[in-house]
Design a protein that fits this description.
The chain is mainly alpha-helical and 138 residues long. It contains three helices and no strands.
């Protein structure tokens, strides 16, 4: 294990010596290449940050919309139940309950869409983290 590490150390020292012994124009070319790579990564990071912020804003808007829709659905379901009770009596309570269940199922579908957006945001954040690590490494 020590021999292997010593060999790797010698290889790295050789690479460093090679870089030191390179003519100045090659060093400058390598520096320019690294700067260009860094600039590209910074640009990708900035784009990713903008997209992440945009998705976060959109998620918050959808959450507010979902909450107001759920509130409206509950209100409409109550109104419908009251109206049906007045018109037809107890036998139609089942129909109102079924309609309320349908509204509830629709709300669940909306919640699934929100969960998908949250997952997408998490993926973008992970990608941002990885890009930052790569930039730091460079």
């Amino acid at each position: 294990e020590v021999q292997k590490l010593n060999q790797q150390l010698e290889e790295k020292n050789g690479e460093i010596q090679q870089m030191i012994n390179q003519p100045p124009y090659e060093k400058e070319r390598e520096i320019l290449r690294l700067q260009k790579t860094l600039a590209e990564k910074e640009k990708a990071q900035a784009t990713s940050d903008v997209l992440c912020r945009s998705l976060t804003d959109e998620t918050h808007q959808l959450q507010r919309k979902l909450a107001s829709t759920a509130e409206m659905c509950q209100h409409l379901a109550k109104c419908l139940e009251e109206k049906q009770r007045k018109e037809k009596g107890n036998s139609d309570d089942q129909i109102a309950t079924e309609r309320s269940n349908q509204v509830f199922l629709q709300l669940l579908c909306l919640l699934d869409n929100e969960t998908s957006l949250q997952a997408l945001i998490c993926n973008l954040r992970e990608e941002n983290r990885m890009l930052k690590q790569k930039v730091a490494h460079v």
